[in-house]
């Protein structure tokens, strides 16, 4: 900074400094007179210093040059305030002239040579226009005097914020200036505004002007350039005067317009918009100034004049429609907010402004075309607080526009927003692109949909219809994310759940049928395209490589359909508080019930076709129609099976009415075909037993403590079906059950048979006689036992996905009465009164249900420490080992459960025998050596269950198991190696600190398998062992595995980088996440506030 700048600023300080206290008291007969005295005294002092002080010689020279160039300067003015303003303007222009010359000299000064160059630690040279804090304060004071005395008093009524509204001092200044007539007010305003604009040509001075006085400069330019003629009334004479046009020439007005246009383009847009909104609103009714007539009339003027409102509206419309104009408007109104309730209301107001087409716009179509894409851009901010506010504005704007301008919203908002998803349905391979839809497009699209649909949460017909068109694509993307680690999983799931929760029931059921594959494919992902992982954790749409083998293609298709069904069931499980899963389940059951009748009608009514009179296309359609119907029915059965397998009964049947609908479908299926075969006949025993179980559910509902009238009204729909069964069914027991249930329902419980609580099922006692003797007694006894269980727990007929009998539906698993989880079928059995020898004999029965039931009973005897079972421990063990080799899954799974119970009760002896069989194959004389591998894997399953049940005894009993499992990792067969690793992982979770001495050996084994094993299945198991190990040890990992943790980490990183198997890589990533969590907790432990009491000796 040169010496001239401090001298000029010192002169400005002399002109603007306050008067001393003594002088102030002498001159203070009134506030106005005191202020005038200060202005005159400071002006005189400045002139004196300029003439006498040699340090101000350069200031005096520059000031004289400015006076020569300033045609507006009048040294003989009698107005002290305007004379003071003139001196301020001269000094400001002097400062501008001096700084401009210094900047040119600074820019043309050559840079120092390399030898004299400053070091990197030293700051660069500052330009000469950089001012210190004190100098900025002095300059700011001068600008405040200029604006208060030379600009604001000359603004028209309603233009800008009057001084009287700003402070008490401002009101006094306003009175001072307006106490007399103001000659040439327009020229004075034009002069002050022009000088301020000249100051803004320097960036350092422009910052001071625009940050403090931008609104005043805008108000002055608007008045100078656009104020029309004004008519004033004086007494009885009306005269028309031109407030501005008389004093300003057309060129000066045009100059102000161009200056305003330039100012709007170069200043920070939110500041401009904020000031224009203030100008458009005008001042409030009450002022802060005094009570004199001039000031009061100005403060109480009301709103801004009409011409100013129109001008501000035009300028705001132009700013809004220019690039990033919407963002500027939002920032102008919301900037500086805290995210409170008032900010949310502001967001709604801004959204309402954005969707309202201004009158100045050429057409609504043009306005929305330029604004809507900017509204969508508001969804893409990263800053947390800013993003929340902008997203709120964008969401509300979209919702408002859908209500008021649905066609425009569909064309300019929803269509561009959903374009990547629509492109997924119309993609083609014409361009040979690697990705039809890029990752960033899908990610942005899904996030935008989530913000508008889910976060906005204002369901409407337009939103639901638009989302319905892309729902299959979103579901396909959701199924893909469930197979991988992706940040798109949660948005996809929330969007799908939002639609299913808010859509009308018919639309939601139709969507579920389409997503499950039961309805025609519509709006699906384009053929030969599929989703692939993206580099940033998202997904992209890429072309699919066609399978050369038909079997591979068929397997890929079937596995994909099965996975889609499982993902759909996971979505329905999240809707446990809704009726939609149950409605969909009952809809499928109703369709199932209608098939039998439809099949019979088709056979009766279908005439023989005359092929000769049909075209080839008609013949083809007629021949393919039955296979198409059969395929549709198989698909429905598959969906029903997956629903029953994956969803709990509390999700499928939440209300009594849904349970009644379920039973109605069951009874309708039972009534089909009763008229076709009159007379007594046995029919299907399984169907009869199922029907008996359903009636047990009805009896349980009727035995409830409180049955409402609505429940009886719902169950009254069963009356015709029960009547048909009571008259036509061949089973006498079912006839009696139907008659009793019909009587109870028809009388609303007024009539009840004496044995009504037990009327549904026959007795569980084996000696109980049954009227229908056509069924073999032993099978019938078992089925009666199952029926009685169903009566105790009405929903127990639903199969369990975790039950061993999932693959064979001969013995459905039971749901625990508490409803908290599912247990195996033996958990709810009550032991019949039979000796152990009878159960041992039945366990060898060739009939599968009889043998399985006996094995379950023996298992429960072992669990209950039955004395006979304890004594015959060896016989029971041999029996379980023999049944372990049975080919039926129901039998060998029951044997596995029995062996697990034995190992839990008598671990030392049983585990030794099982370990020997796992190592060397079955040791029984009757064992089939050809199936030795299957038997070893079944024994491995037993050992895994035994390992889980050990608990704290694992440290004592686990050493022999670890030795055998480690040896099993070197078995020639890959299945045995994988089974050994799986058992090893389950066992290591329980060992805790006992694992320490084996850490090196375990690490060496797992590392070697990961790097050298050829089979992907074994590598997956090895990586999974590390994951289970880390989860089991938890925070003890660094203590137990401290010596080998680095080796395991490097092995996992090697898998992620080098292993070709995607599943192994996924397991490794999960294990690395476990290590990351452990080390974060170890390095940054959770801070706990604890009180420690120390007892001093």
TrEMBL record:
GO biological process: protein secretion
Region ranges (Disordered): 753-831
Ranges for domain TANGO6 HEAT repeat: 320-577
Pfam families in the record: ARM_TANGO6 (PF23565), RTP1_C1 (PF10363), RTP1_C2 (PF10304), TANGO6_N (PF25267)
Comp. bias (Polar residues): 765-810
Superkingdom, taxonomy of origin: Eukaryota
Residues annotated as transmembrane: none
Domain RNA polymerase II assembly factor Rtp1 C-terminal: 837-953, 1044-1077
InterPro entries reported for this sequence: ARM-like, ARM-type_fold, HEAT_TANGO6, Rtp1_C1, Rtp1_C2, TANGO6/Rtp1, TANGO6_N
Domain named TANGO6 N-terminal: residues: 2-318
Family in the record: Belongs to the Tango6 family.
Protein name: Transport and golgi organization 6 homolog
Species per Swiss-Prot/TrEMBL record: Cyclopterus lumpus (Lumpsucker)
Organismal lineage: Eukaryota, Metazoa, Chordata, Craniata, Vertebrata
């Amino acid at each position: 900074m040169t010496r001239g700048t401090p001298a000029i600023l010192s002169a400005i300080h002399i002109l603007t400094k306050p008067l001393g206290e003594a002088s102030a008291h002498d001159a203070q007969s009134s506030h106005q007179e005191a202020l005038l005295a200060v202005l005159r005294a400071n002006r005189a002092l400045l002139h004196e210093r300029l003439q006498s002080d040699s340090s101000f010689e350069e200031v005096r020279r520059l000031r004289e040059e400015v006076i020569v160039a300033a045609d507006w300067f009048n040294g003989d003015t009698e107005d002290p305030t305007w004379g003071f303003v003139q001196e301020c303007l001269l000094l400001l222009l002097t400062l501008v002239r001096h700084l401009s010359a210094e900047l040119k000299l600074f820019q043309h000064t050559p840079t120092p040579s390399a030898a004299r160059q400053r070091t990197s630690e030293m700051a660069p040279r500052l330009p000469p226009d950089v001012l210190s804090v004190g100098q900025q304060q002095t300059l700011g004071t001068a600008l405040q005097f200029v604006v208060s005395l030379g600009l604001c008093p000359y603004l028209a009524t309603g233009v800008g914020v009057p001084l009287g509204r700003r402070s008490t001092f401002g009101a006094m200044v306003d009175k001072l200036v307006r106490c007399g007539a103001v000659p040439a007010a327009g020229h004075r305003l034009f002069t002050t505004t022009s000088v301020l604009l000249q100051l803004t040509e320097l960036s350092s001075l422009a910052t001071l002007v625009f940050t403090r006085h931008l609104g005043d400069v805008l108000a002055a330019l608007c008045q100078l350039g656009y104020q029309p003629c004004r008519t004033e009334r004086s007494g009885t004479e009306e005269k028309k005067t031109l407030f501005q046009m008389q004093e300003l020439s057309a060129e000066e007005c045009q100059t102000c317009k161009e200056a305003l246009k330039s100012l709007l383009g170069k200043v920070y847009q939110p500041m401009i918009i904020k000031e224009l909104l203030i100008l458009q609103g005008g001042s409030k009714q009450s002022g802060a100034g005094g009570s004199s007539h001039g000031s009061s009339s100005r403060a109480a003027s009301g709103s801004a004049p009409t011409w100013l409102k129109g001008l501000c509206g035009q300028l705001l419309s132009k700013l809004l429609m220019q690039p990033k104009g919407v963002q500027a408007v939002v920032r102008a109104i919301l900037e500086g907010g805290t995210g409170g309730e008032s900010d949310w209301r502001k967001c709604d107001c801004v959204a309402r402004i954005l969707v309202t087409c201004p009158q100045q716009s050429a057409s609504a179509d043009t306005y929305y075309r330029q604004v809507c894409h900017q509204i969508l851009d508001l969804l893409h901010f990263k800053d947390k607080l800013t993003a929340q506010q902008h997203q709120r504005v964008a969401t509300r704007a979209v919702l408002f526009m859908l209500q008021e301008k649905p066609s425009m919203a569909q064309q300019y908002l929803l269509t561009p927003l959903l374009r990547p998803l629509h492109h997924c349905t119309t993609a083609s391979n014409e361009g040979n692109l690697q990705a039809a839809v890029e990752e960033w497009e899908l990610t942005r699209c899904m996030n935008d949909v989530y913000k508008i649909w889910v976060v906005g949460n204002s369901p409407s017909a337009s939103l639901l219809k638009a989302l319905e068109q892309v729902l299959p694509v979103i579901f396909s993307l959701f199924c893909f994310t469930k197979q991988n680690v992706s940040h798109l999983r949660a948005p996809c799931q929330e969007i799908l759940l939002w639609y299913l929760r808010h859509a009308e029931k018919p639309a939601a059921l139709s969507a579920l049928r389409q997503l499950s594959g039961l309805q025609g494919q519509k709006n699906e992902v384009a053929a030969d395209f599929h989703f692939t992982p993206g580099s940033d954790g998202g997904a992209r749409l890429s072309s699919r490589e066609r399978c050369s083998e038909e079997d591979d293609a068929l397997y890929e298709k079937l596995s994909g359909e099965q996975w889609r069904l499982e993902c759909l069931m996971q979505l329905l499980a999240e809707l446990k508080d809704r009726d939609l899963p149950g409605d969909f389940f009952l809809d499928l059951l109703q369709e199932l019930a209608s098939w039998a009748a439809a099949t019979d009608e088709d056979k009766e009514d279908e005439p023989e076709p005359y092929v000769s009179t049909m075209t080839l296309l008609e013949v083809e359609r007629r021949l393919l129609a039955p296979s198409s119907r059969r395929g549709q029915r198989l698909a429905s059965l598959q969906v029903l099976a997956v629903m029953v397998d994956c969803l709990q009964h509390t999700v499928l049947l939440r209300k009594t009415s849904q349970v009644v609908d379920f039973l109605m479908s069951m009874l309708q299926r039972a009534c089909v075909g009763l008229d076709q075969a009159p007379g007594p006949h046995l029919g299907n025993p399984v169907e009869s037993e199922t029907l008996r179980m359903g009636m047990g559910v009805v009896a349980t509902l009727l035995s409830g403590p409180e049955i409402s009238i609505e429940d009886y009204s719902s169950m009254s729909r069963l009356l015709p079906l029960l009547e048909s069964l009571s008259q036509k069914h061949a089973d006498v027991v079912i006839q009696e059950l139907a008659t009793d249930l019909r009587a109870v329902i028809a009388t609303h419980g007024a009539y009840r048979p004496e044995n009504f609580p037990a009327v549904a099922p026959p007795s569980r006692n084996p000696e109980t006689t049954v009227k229908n003797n056509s069924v073999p007694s032993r099978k019938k006894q078992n089925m009666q036992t199952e029926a009685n269980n169903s009566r105790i727990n009405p929903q127990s007929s639903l199969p369990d996905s975790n039950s061993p009998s999932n693959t064979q539906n001969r013995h459905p698993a039971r749901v625990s009465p508490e409803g908290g989880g599912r247990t195996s079928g033996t958990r709810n059995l009550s032991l019949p009164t039979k000796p152990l020898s009878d159960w041992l004999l039945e366990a060898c029965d060739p009939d599968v249900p009889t043998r399985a039931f006996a094995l379950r009973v023996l298992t429960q005897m072992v669990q209950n420490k039955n004395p006979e079972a304890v004594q015959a421990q060896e016989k029971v063990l041999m029996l379980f080992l023999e049944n372990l080799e049975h080919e039926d899954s129901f039998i060998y799974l029951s044997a596995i459960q029995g062996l697990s119970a034995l190992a839990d009760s008598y671990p030392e002896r049983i585990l030794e025998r099982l370990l020997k069989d796992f190592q060397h194959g079955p040791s029984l004389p009757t064992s089939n050596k050809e199936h030795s591998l299957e038997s070893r894997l079944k024994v491995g399953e037993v050992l895994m269950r035994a390992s889980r049940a050990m608990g704290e005894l694992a440290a004592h009993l686990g050493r022999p198991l670890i030795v055998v499992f480690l040896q099993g990792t070197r078995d020639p067969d890959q299945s045995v190696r994988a089974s050994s690793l799986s058992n090893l992982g389950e066992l290591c979770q329980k060992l805790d600190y006992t694992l320490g001495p084996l850490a090196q050996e375990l690490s060496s084994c797992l590392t070697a398998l990961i790097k050298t094993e050829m089979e992907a299945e074994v590598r997956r198991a090895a990586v999974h062992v590390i994951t289970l190990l880390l989860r089991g040890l938890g925070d003890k990992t660094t203590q137990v595995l401290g010596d080998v943790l680095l080796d395991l980490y490097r092995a996992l990183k090697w898998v992620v980088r080098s292993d070709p198997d995607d599943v192994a890589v996924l397991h490794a990533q999960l294990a690395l996440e476990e290590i990351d969590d452990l080390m974060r907790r170890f390095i940054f432990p959770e801070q706990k506030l604890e009180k420690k009491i120390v007892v001093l000796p």
